[in-house]
Specification:
By secondary structure, the protein is an alpha+beta fold. The protein folds into 2 domains: about 55 residues, no CATH class; about 80 residues, 3-Layer(aba) Sandwich (Glutaredoxin). It has a 5-stranded mixed sheet with strand order 2-3-1-4-5, with helices on one face. Strand 4 and strand 5 form a beta hairpin. Helix 2 packs antiparallel against helix 3. The longest helix has 12 residues.
Length: about 160
């Protein structure tokens, strides 16, 4: 995917070339493109005079950064303490099996991105999945396929 480098320049110019603004610049770039394109990372490294490896290290370290384009549907599975003790690991495994991806990855057809989150803030409803702002609570591994089918069959 080709990106408009002038948008990256505008973001950097708005904030700063100082190294301490790297994360702020990367967050703003991700807001613009929904992920951090390789061309943008290279350009940031060059403009800010930071080794490209260091920019990648920052982007890899913080979970907020995405290095590949997101899928059409974001699937978040809660791994918070309450969900974990109620079996969320089985949901994560089932999602991965059905989508044929690991957490933090996007399906080949770019339809789904699977994300595992530390808490969704609805602990009493434990084993929670969120797909595009739709909450599914008390989900069992057997229900996962029918939930995903709603997003495949509707063409959403």
């Amino acid at each position: 995917m080709e990106i408009d480098i002038s948008k990256v320049d505008a973001i950097i110019d708005k904030h700063s070339l100082e190294h301490r603004w790297l994360i702020t610049n990367l967050l703003a770039i991700q807001d613009e493109f929904q992920y951090l394109p390789q061309d943008a990372i290279r350009h940031v490294a060059e403009r800010m005079n930071i080794p490209i490896l260091q920019v990648y290290q920052v982007a890899e370290f913080y979970k907020v950064f995405k290095l590949e384009p997101p899928g059409k549907h974001l699937v978040s599975v809660c791994r918070g303490t309450a969900c974990h003790v109620r079996g969320s690991e089985a949901l994560i495994e089932r999602m991965g099996d059905l989508l044929k991806i690991a957490p933090s990855r996007t399906t080949k057809d770019k339809q789904f991105t699977l994300d595992v989150v530390n808490c969704l803030g609805c602990c009493a409803l434990g084993r929670v999945i969120v797909i595009d702002d739709h909450f599914y609570v008390n989900v069992t591994p057997n229900e996962v396929e029918s939930i995903l089918d709603k997003y495949v069959s509707n063409g959403d």
